[in-house]
Each structure stands twice: as C-alpha cells, then as structure tokens.
Specification:
The protein has about 90 residues and is an all-alpha fold. About 90% of the residues lie in helices and about 0% in strands. It is built from three helices and no strands. The longest helix is centred in the N-terminal third of the chain and has 44 residues. The protein is elongated. The N and C termini lie far apart (about 65 Å).
Length: about 90
C-alpha cells in the first residue's frame, strides 16, 4: 500500500508541475491569437482585392471559432494563414 501512495503522490506532483509549465504558454498564445484577429480585421477593412479578402475572411472566421473554443494554437494557425494571404 505504501508503494502505491508514493507512486500516486509522484504522479500527482508531476501532473501539477506539468500544468504549471503549460499555463503561461497558453496565456501568451491567447494574447497572440486576439492580437492576430485584430490585425486580420484591420487588413480586411483596407478593402484588399476580393481573392485576398476571401482568404482573410476565411482565416478570420476560423481564428475566431478557435478562440471561442480556447484552441489557441489552432487559432494562431488561422492567423498565420491570413497573414500569408495579406503578403501575397
């Protein structure tokens, strides 16, 4: 029984430590996601060519959806797609 308790305590400690390391990255990603969405909205407001605007709007829609789902890494993927559309 004592062996199980040490294992459980170690697993719990490792899980808590692991969560502590990932929270700041998520906070940064959330901030970057929100900033990226604002950037895409600003680019869409500049009335780019229709093909570019369509790509920006598609990326914006996906980024906003992922922000709502708190999937910040996927939001940033959409933001990056939108930035590529702006550059082309």
């Amino acid at each position: 029984m004592q062996r199980f308790t040490r294992s459980a305590a170690g697993a719990l400690l490792a899980a808590a430590f692991g969560l502590g390391l990932t929270l700041p990255a998520s906070a940064d990603e959330a901030k970057d996601c929100t900033a990226g969405i604002a950037l895409l909205k600003a680019e869409a407001a500049k009335n780019p060519p229709k093909a570019t605007l369509d790509k920006i709007n598609k990326a914006l829609k996906g980024a906003e959806r992922e922000l709502g789902e708190k999937e910040y890494d996927e939001c940033l993927d959409f933001v990056n797609d939108g930035k590529k559309a702006v550059k082309s």
